[in-house]
Amino acid sequence: MAKDNSPIGKQSRREGFALHPKAHKLLVKKPYVPGQHGQGRRSRVSEYGEQLREKQKIRRSYGLLEKQFRIIVKQAQNAEGQTGEIILKTLELRADNVIYRAGFASSRRSARQLVSHAHVMVDGKKMNIPSYRLKEGQVVEVSPKAKKNEYFKELITNPTAGAAPKWLKVDSKSLKITVAAQPAREDITEELNEQAVVEFYSR
To answer: How many CB atoms neighbour CB 148 within 10 A?
Structure first.
């Protein structure tokens, strides 16, 4: 499965946005874009440039390649409702993102790895597709075999699901997540401008 393996630190500096918890310190230490002339004066960014950067920020935040992201945008454009919100809701319902939001992984990259290694099940069946789009009512849980892993034993002992969004019902003892509702726009706390993405692809 294709994925972007470029350093998350460089990606974060390029977007001016921490794409991983560990990137916060790096952005404070090096608050400029990577490259030889990164510390030089930045020229005025055009409207197109701002839209491009916002698109890249959202795409990279959720760990998608351009082709994958474009497909989601196209589907949202053909659906009824606010295109920007549909894009974000679709991204939120990805299996890897749900694992991350539930507190079972410290980053979406880590969550993607957990899903890819088939450590989780959906409705009792093994799942190894990070991009799998969950539906309301579906249940995600750590497989019985994976629960014997020290990583998951630590999760049970020291649960981190307190900050999970209200649309997810998380049982930290059984390592089970239920998609209780559709994610709402206000549940996404990151500073994302989805309208800029819609305008970028409408050109």
So the answer is: 9
Q: Which helix (H) or strand (E) segment is 87 a member of?
A: helix 83-92
Instruction: Give the E-state strand segments of the chain in sequence order.
Output: 120-122, 125-127, 139-142, 168-171, 176-179
d(CA 150, CA 21): 22
Between the alpha carbon of residue 180 and those of residues 5, 165, 194, the distances in Å are: 33, 10, 24
Of 23, 19, 15, 3, the closest CA to residue 66 belongs to: 3
Question: What is the C-alpha to C-alpha distance for residues 120 and 148, in angstroms, rounded to an integer?
Answer: 13
The tens-digit pLDDT sequence of the chain (203 residues) is 455 566 655 555 555 656 656 555 655 555 555 655 456 555 677 999 999 999 999 999 999 999 999 999 999 999 999 999 999 999 999 999 999 999 999 899 999 999 999 999 999 999 999 999 999 999 999 999 999 999 999 988 887 655 799 999 999 999 999 999 999 999 998 899 999 999 999 98
Give pTM, 2 decimals. 0.80
- DSSP track, 27-41: HHH--S-SSTTTTSP
**DSSP run (H or E) holding 55:** helix 47-61
